[in-house]
Design brief:
Layout lengths: L3 H9 L3 H10 L9 H17 L3 H17 L3 H8 L3 H25 L4
Helix pairs in contact: 2-3, 3-4, 3-6, 4-5, 4-6
Amino acid sequence: MPRLDELLSAVANLTFARKGDLAIALAPGEENDRWWQVFWAVNQVRNTIAHKIDSNEISDKIKFLRDEFVKVLNEEQAKYVETLSEETLVDIACQNCAGFLGMLEEDAKARGIS
């Protein structure tokens, strides 16, 4: 049986995308939640910023993020998000994704997965 430190090391070396896939696997019944689309859009922004210099491509990914983000919000929230700067939008989307993942973590703990 693998040691805990070995497992944690293996997880630490996963790509962000593989960690996302793992999170989905640990959240049965939540795989179709619209927040996953926001999560993957955040990942696209992260990848583009990390690997590209083209600011137009970054802006395109942030527009895609905004489009996905407003889909999970009510009408009033969506109108507000439409007014945000790119930087603030990315910040708030990341915060909301963290909250979504935190909720999934609490649910997993309640099911005995830790």
